[in-house]
Specification:
This protein folds into two domains: 2-130, no CATH class; 143-187 and 222-416, no CATH class. The chain contains seven helices and 26 strands. The model is unreliable at 72-80 (pLDDT under 50). It has helices spanning 2-64, 252-255, 259-267, 271-277, 288-294, 339-342, 406-416; strands spanning 85-91, 97-104, 109-115, 122-130, 143-145, 155-159, 166-168, 178-182, 190-192, 198-202, 208-212, 217-219, 235-240, 247-248, 281-282, 303-307, 310-312, 317-318, 350-355, 358-360, 363-372, 376-378, 381-390, 394-396, 400-404, 420-428.
Length: 429
């Protein structure tokens, strides 16, 4: 009897031990499985986060290439290759494939949704980008010179947005050329453009609106509303053979400024700071044509800085998707579009800063802003649609066609600058 009880106790004890071992084993297995799941989830989560980060980096790389979001109403002008959404796929060193869905809205809110290699985990990063301001204070004249202006040759200077053409701190030689200002007699004119063209027209209240005049007839704004839009008012001759009231010369307030102060007046930054922080292309060439030949993609939609005295020869075109050629002989552009657009090109203005003198030979075409921190000289032909600012003297003997365009200048601030991550604009979840 005692032996039987002893055997039963042993059996019960063995069962209890077996149950305990089983429980411990199951518990350990569960714990191990949980740890593996946690580790795997963490690994996949990191993969997704890295993919999302790579997506944000890709957006900024595309920004550096000049891509911008296309927005209804043309906030960023004509975007030939808009960036609103994209999908990024890449492979790491282990051969794992990751994906990120990218999106950018018109307010520069960036979103990147990253996925792990097995798509089981996702991470979303949102960031607010901001645009630096290249031109803080838009010029109001086609030609500004801190020193004297003595331009020989055939010069035509136009301002369809105001009543002044030349502002100089020094003397402006009589008979510098022909100047034109907005004509107060401008009435509403009908225009038709063959290619897509957003031009200013009266809205329902008779105030300025915009309309796509591609293949249809549009009526432009009359004076004075046309003053608010580039190349829209008709022109009237203000100077021819002698300087008219549109020419401001010997302005001591301008002459007494240093070249740095003139530059700061327009950009809000000293030249050295602008070069290091705002300019997105530092030219390794001193000749414009060499730069244009070797960097065609950087000849549009960029802030370009030339160190030291520079020159231009040949016939480079900056700020337009097609090349200009020849002299247009004083053509008056008053149908709201630039010579670039009327020729079938896309307007992508540039801002070029020369930290020294600029000597021009041949033809030079610029859509945007040209700022020379020195003297402008030479015998070439200069064609600028936007504004020309010289902190020294402008004594160039070739032909000139300088057309003021606030639109071209504004597009520099919207398209030519490189967006950066705004402070406090990052979040991930």
């Amino acid at each position: 009897m005692k032996s039987s009880q002893h055997g039963a106790a042993t059996l019960i004890f063995s069962i209890v031990v077996l149950l305990l071992v089983t429980f411990v084993t199951l518990s350990t297995s569960t714990s191990i499985i949980s740890e593996l799941k946690i580790g795997n989830n963490d690994y996949r989560s990191k993969q997704a986060f890295e993919a999302a980060e790579a997506g944000i980096a890709e957006i900024f790389r595309l920004f550096a290439e000049g891509k911008r979001p296309a927005v209804a109403g043309g906030m960023f002008g004509t975007i030939s290759s808009p960036l609103n959404s994209d999908t990024l796929t890449f492979t790491n060193s282990l051969g794992q494939i990751f994906t990120a869905n990218l999106s950018v809205d018109g307010d520069f809110n960036l979103t990147s949704v990253g996925f792990s290699d097995d798509l089981s985990a996702t991470k979303t990063i949102t960031i607010r980008a901001a645009l630096p301001t290249a031109i803080n204070n838009l010029p109001e004249n086609p030609l500004t010179a801190r020193g004297a202006v003595n331009i020989g040759g055939a010069a035509n200077i136009y301002n369809s947005e105001g009543a002044s053409t030349i502002w100089a701190g020094g003397d402006v030689a009589a008979g510098v050329g022909r100047t034109y200002i907005a004509n107060p007699s401008t009435s509403g004119r009908s225009v038709t453009h063959s290619s897509p063209a957003v031009v200013p027209v009266p809205d329902a209240n008779g105030v300025g609106g915009v309309s796509n005049c591609s293949g249809q007839t549009c009526t432009l704004l009359p004076y004075p509303q046309c003053l608010e839009y580039s190349l829209t008012c008709e022109l009237t001759k203000a100077s021819d053979g002698e300087n008219g009231v549109d020419v401001i010369s010997n302005d001591s307030a301008l002459a007494e400024l240093s070249k740095d102060e003139v530059f700061i007046n327009y950009t809000g930054e000293p030249p050295s700071q602008f070069r290091n922080q705002t300019a997105n292309v530092i030219s390794s060439y001193s000749n414009f044509n060499d730069f244009y030949t070797n960097n065609p993609d950087d000849s549009v939609q960029r802030i370009i800085w030339f160190d030291g005295d520079s020159s231009s020869s040949g016939g480079p075109t900056f700020g337009c998707s097609i090349d200009m050629s020849g002299n247009d002989g004083g053509t008056q552009y008053t149908e709201a579009l630039t010579r670039c657009e009327l020729g079938g090109g896309t307007l992508n203005p540039v801002m070029i800063v020369v930290d020294g003198d600029l000597t021009v030979a041949g033809n030079l075409y610029i859509f945007g802003a040209l700022i020379v921190l020195g003297d402008l000289k030479g015998s070439g032909s200069v064609d600028v649609t936007g504004a020309l600012v010289v902190t020294g003297s402008a004594a160039e003997s070739g032909s000139k066609d300088i057309r003021f365009s606030s639109r071209a200048l504004q597009l520099i601030n919207e398209n030519a600058v490189t967006p950066y991550a705004a402070s406090g604009g990052w979040s991930d979840f």
